[in-house]
Amino acid sequence: MFQNRCKKRCFYGASIYVVCLLAISPIIGKKTKAADIIAKVLNDNSQPIWHAVVYADPKADIPSAPQANEAVIDQIDKMFKPFVSVVRVGTRIKFPNNDNIQHHVYSFSRANKFELPLYAEQVASPVIFDKEGAVVLGCNIHDWMMAHVLVVKTPYFAVTDQNGQAFLNDLPDGDYKVQVWHPGMRKKPKIKPQMINISVADKEVKFNLHLKARRKWWRNKPDDAKSEYGSTYK
Question: pLDDT tens across 127-143, in order?
Fold first, then answer.
């Protein structure tokens, strides 16, 4: 039986609630253990934060969960989609262009500096993200186009939805360091990692972290985007 008890605490900035549910099921006389982490990220007004990354690093050498080694960040209607991605180190990311104009994708971030020169209606060569860290993407033609990629070692991660929820599924038994990241979070106050233990008993763990959003991580698409840029770079 799962229990769901959650007491809310208010903190300056944002709060993240992580509920760790442990399921035990017998398979051929042997018990296997797996847990789901359900995270909720809120701001100081108790409003959900979208596009936050929640990831859990296992302390021990725990077998990795299966993860695809490829990801896709599309370009549709002169915007990157998805806006925030999280991938494991070594993942190949494809940048297909589904617009009928050219794009020029680049990044100057330390974790991965690259450039995909002008291309249209085709898939450029995949880019390998082989270093940990945050990567900011841009388009050299359309200044408002921006996206963010967080590269991590762990296979256990998720991005919050519009309700501020993220779901990390099927974590093996063990100790984990849970962290939260958002492209708009301030460096100070620093968000400390939270340690949790997933053991043999049903367990609930709640974390409260504070974030403070900043407005340098998003660019609005201009109203005249179609008329100004629709034919110039075909």
Answer: 999 999 999 999 999 98
